[in-house]
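Following the same procedure, sequence and fold were stored together, as reproduced here.

>
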Amino acid sequence: MKFTMNENGFQANLEFGELRISSQENCGFRPYQLMISSIAGCSGGVLRKILQKMRLPFNDIVISTRVRRNPDKVNRIEEIHLVFTIYAEKIEPNKIEKALELTRKNCSMIQSVENSIKITEEFKIKRTYDS
């Protein structure tokens, strides 16, 4: 990847399109947003594949995150909590627990930050899209 400077940060032209990165939200994605997105997107993709391989039927996965940053250490990301809401008609919680264990072991983004950012997970099983 090649990143070039622009008036508000940096940009890269990637296969999918242009990626703009900036400390100003109105000019591009903030670096911490990309970090959180990488971890959530990777773990969600791995979880999806694992559930499919386990032949566990589900309709959707929604991932919410809570992030704790340390203002005394340049707003360093200290902890990321992932909440996986899995929409399924019939699925056993112990199977989701096993799938999440495998997800953690096989997500390259989680493994990349394993000793520097605390990653925690929880899951909810819902049958409908009601809140």
About this structure: The domain at 31-126 is CATH 3.30.300.20 (GMP Synthetase; Chain A, domain 3). The chain has a mean pLDDT of 93. The helical segments are 31-53, 93-106, 108-113. The longest strand covers residues 76-87.
